Prior knowledge:
Shape of chain A: globular
Order of helices and strands of chain A: EHEHEHEHEHHE
Structural class of chain A: alpha/beta
Low-confidence stretches of chain B: none
Low-confidence stretches of chain A: none
Strand order of the largest sheet of chain B: 3-2-1-4-5-6-7-8
Distance between the termini of chain B: 34 Å
Strand content of chain A: 5-15%
Strand order of the largest sheet of chain A: 3-2-1-4-5-6
Structural class of chain B: alpha/beta
Radius of gyration of chain B: 17 Å
Shape of chain B: globular
Order of helices and strands of chain B: EHEHEHEHEHHEHEE
Number of strands of chain A: 6
Helix content of chain B: 40-55%
Number of helices of chain A: 6
Strand content of chain B: 5-15%
Largest sheet of chain B: 8 strands, mixed
Oligomer: heterodimer
Mean pLDDT of chain A: 95
Largest sheet of chain A: 6 strands, parallel
Mean pLDDT of chain B: 96
Amino acid sequence: MTRTLVTGANRGLGYETARQLIAAGHTVYVGARDPDRGRQAAEPIGARFVEIDVTSDASVTAAAIAVEAFGGLDVLINNAGIAGRTPEGGFATAAEETADSLRTSFETNVFGVVRVIRAFLPLLEKSSTPVIVNVSSGLSLTRDLVRGDSPTYLYPGIGYPASKAALNVITVQYAKAFPGIRINAVGPGFTATDLNGHTGT
Amino acid sequence: MTTTLITGANKGLGYETARQLIAVGHTVYIGCRDPKRGLSAADQLGARLVHLDVTDDESVSAAAIFIAEQGGLDVLVNNAGVEGRGEHNSIIDAASTTANMVREVFDTNVFGAVRVTHAFLPLLQRSSTPVVVNVSSSLGSLTLAGSPESPTYHYPGVAYPASKSALNMITVQFAKQFPGMRINAVEPGYTNTDLNGRTGTQTVEEGARIIVHMARTPTDGPTGGYYSVHGPIPW
Lengths: 201, 235
C-alpha cells in the first residue's frame, strides 16, 4: 500500500489530489497548518491529518516523526504554496515588489519545500517506491515568460514566477542527487482555487 | 557622462567591472559593506565609495539618497552575490542543504538584488540611458541543469543555481515592465574569485567582459535577455 503526504491539503488542489489518490488506493496524510481545518478536510475523505507548517523547522520535524510513527512514507507531494497576491487579490508588480514581500512567497514555495524534503528524505529512502512531486506552475518557465505569444507572458507579478523557477531548479538538482527517487515538478494549469481568488479557468 | 553603481565591488568581478568601466569613462560608485575594504578599493580604482549592504533596507535606502544627492544614476550592476559553500570550500549537496542555507543565499542573490533595484528605480527612471545588469550564472539555467552534455549539469549544489534561476525570472519581469530600460542577466563564466574559493578557471578580466558589455548596452540594445560573452544562453 502506498503512503502519501500532501502538504497544504485542506483545500484546493491539495485536497483534490488527496481525494483522487485515496480513490486510487493510497493511504493519504492530509498536511495542513490548522488542526481544525485539516481534520475537517481529512475525515470525510478517509485521510489522516498531519499538522505541518512548511515554514517552521519544528513543525516539519514533528510531522516527519508523526508520519514515521504511522508507518512511513512512499510519496511526498509538496503542494503548499502561495501566490503572493495583494490583499485585494491583485499583483505586486515589479515596481511595487519589495524584498520583504518577495521573501514571503519564497518562505513557503521554495524554502518550505527544501525543509520538507530534507525532513522526509530518511523516510522516503526506506520506501521501495519513493516519489516526490513538487507542485510548480506554467508561470515558472522563464523561456515562456519572455515569449510574446505565450499566455504567461502578460503575468505582471515577480514573486510567484521567480519562486517557481527556483523550485524547478531545486527539483532537477534533487532528482540528479537521488536517482533512486522519482522527483518531478508539475504544472497543474490555471485552476479555480483560493490561491488565485478563484479566477482560474 | 555615465554614472554607474556596482554592488559588491571591493573585490572579484565587481572590482574588475569597476576598473574596466572607469577605463571607458564611467563615473563609478562601488557599493561595499565594509568601509575599510571599500575605501582602499575605491582609492586604487579612482572610484567613489558608497556604503551598501544589499541585505539591509536602511543601508540600501541611504545609498540611494546619497547617490541621488550626488547627481543620480544611469547604470546599476547587481553584482553582489554569494554561493554558500561549506567547510573546506565544499559545494553543499542536495542531501546536506537546509532551508536556512537556501534562505541565506537568496537573501543576497535574490532579495538583495530586488531591494537595490527597487530603491534605485526612481533614479534610473530619471536617466536618459537607464541600464540594469543582473550578474547571474549559467548555473541558473533550468535547461542546462537538465542537459547532461552541459558542464553545469554536474554541479551538485541547490541554493546557488535556484537563486540565479529566480534572478533570471526577476530580470525578465522587470524588463517587460520597464521597456525604457535595458535590463539583462549575464553569465560571467567560471571565474577565479573568492566566491568559489579561487577554483574558477578564467581570469576576472575575462569574467567582467560580459558585465561591462551589457552595462554599456545602447538604448536600442537588447533587454530581458540572458547572455554570456558568447551570446544568448537558454533559460
